[in-house]
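USER: Write out one fold?

ASSISTANT:
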Amino acid sequence: MDLDSSADRPLPILIVARGDPTLSLPVQKVELDLSKFHSGRWAQQLDTAMTRSREPIVLLAQGVACLAVAWWAQLSPRSYLEHIRGAVFLSPLSIGFGQAAIAAKARVSPATKLPFPSVVASDPSSMIEQVLALADNWGSRFVDAGAVPGSHPSNRRGGGTAAEDRLLQLLGLFDAAATSGTGTALDTAVAARLESVR
């Protein structure tokens, strides 16, 4: 089942790399220790979080955590991914201090399509060709993170799928976390965004 056919409201899970600035989203968070990328312990964290869930999930990741999530999704057994309805990847090549070696290892992931709908959002930059290549490899819809909502340019000639369009609604959660802080305003923003994904 994917986001197109799910009548359930998905549970957002924020995936971050330890040491990255934290977003104050009132959602479940998985903090990956990517300092030992070669050991695969970070993948066990994702395995545990995703296999425990019995409800639909939408993954939200930013920066180097996007690369780790894509690697994990491409190599994990399908049974680990059965509850994932989609993913929103924000600025996957925005690498923090001390993360260059991690990013280099994570970029070597298989160039296979992700087994769920996904959106890659990034501001146009000098690395736009590499970001577009990631989106194409993952089967993701690329959008300009700075574009006016509703007018997102894409890496595809045709329009996106209905599932991708609903995932675009979740991009606003990153902005809401930055502007609303915490509390009732943010909870309301998250609830409204998730309702639009139904």
Summary: The longest helix spans residues 184-197. Helices lie at 41-52, 64-75, 100-106, 128-138, 162-169, 171-180, 184-197.
